[in-house]
């Protein structure tokens, strides 16, 4: 019997050739903020490996919103490089999406040239920074930058934009009570904390042509007490559905509190410390790594239980991501009403993972996961040091 994985699926105005999406996972391939030939080659390889849609990760909507010097920010000058990438992806029969975000309290002033801003001035231990609280004008400006980045993404040939509303970046910082302590209409109740996400979506939808899909990646749980939990996530999912989002990518974790919640598996503490250029953070990681960064054991489809609760609450297409590495589990997830599966590490290890599954050459990804690709990403191109030769 043909697996649902290899059947076409509708996502808003788009039809993907199958149910697989290469999840946004920072490639580290934009030195100086400019997409490199490695980025084009990587996404071309994923597309040639039969993915339905591939997502270019972690593109900032402004120079100020970045956390890495090898992270792109959307601007006129890089439209040609992105156009080369989307042409390559389309030539290989896949669709291309770009994840747009702003790091908020995780922005690095050495990279962005500005003091980080966030919903409220709450110290961020991981970034070792006290951000300034955003003004009304900042809120409007950032939402407008999401819209402008969408227009540029469209000109670059992307079929979809994915708003990064999860993992503790700016939009997710608004959703979280700990980082959002505002007493105005942007803070307090979940309706107020979701107002920024909704404003961004409204502006992005207004900027996007009808043939472009608008997706949001959001958390099921931030992964710690006091962060956003599943009941609030369901309310957010319902609001975004009402706003006309074309699909929701369901994930979890809050980078300044529970950075490994999203990945699961081993935490490569030594490799993290090696890549850290800030001396204090490097020492902190070496001495207190295990206390600062909690490890979460890996199991396949680790967000499934929470995601099923969202599935029962909304009708919008859902993409499940997190530990989807075997044909059996992917088939099971798709049979439980999820429309697409998102995968990151299996496609870092083997860009043609989907083609190999389809050909029946393998039944699961060899990714362990050791998460060394994550440590590499901080200062270099994200690759799989163990399986590079495959
Ligand atoms: C090296 C690496 C970089 C990542 N960067 C991002 C990112 O920029 N944006 C994002 O939404 N998720 C990011 N993620 C999370 C993945 O998209 C995905 O949600 C997570 O790895 C779980 O999926 P997997 O088990 O298929 O790897 C990253 C993951 C990895 C391994």
Could you explain the architecture of this structure?
With 390 residues, this protein is an alpha/beta fold. The protein has a single domain, classed as Aldolase class I (TIM Barrel, Alpha-Beta Barrel). 36% of the residues lie in helices and 14% in strands. It contains 15 helices and twelve strands. The chain has helices at residues 37-48, 79-91, 109-112, 136-155, 170-175, 190-193, 195-207, 230-242, 269-275, 279-292, 304-311, 327-335, 345-349, 353-359, 372-377; strands at residues 9-11, 14-16, 20-22, 53-60, 95-101, 117-118, 132-133, 160-165, 213-219, 247-251, 318-321, 340-343. An eight-stranded parallel beta barrel has the order 3-4-5-8-9-10-11-12, surrounded by seven helices. A two-stranded antiparallel sheet has the order 1-2. A two-stranded parallel ribbon has the order 6-7. A hairpin with a 2-residue loop joins β1 (9-11) and β2. α1 (37-48) runs parallel beside α2, α4 packs parallel to α7 and α9 (269-275) packs antiparallel against α10. The radius of gyration is 19 Å and the shape is globular. The two termini are 29 Å apart. Flavin mononucleotide is lined by residues 23-26, 57-58, 99, 164, 167, 217, 251, 262-263, 321-324, 343-346, 373-374, 377, 382.
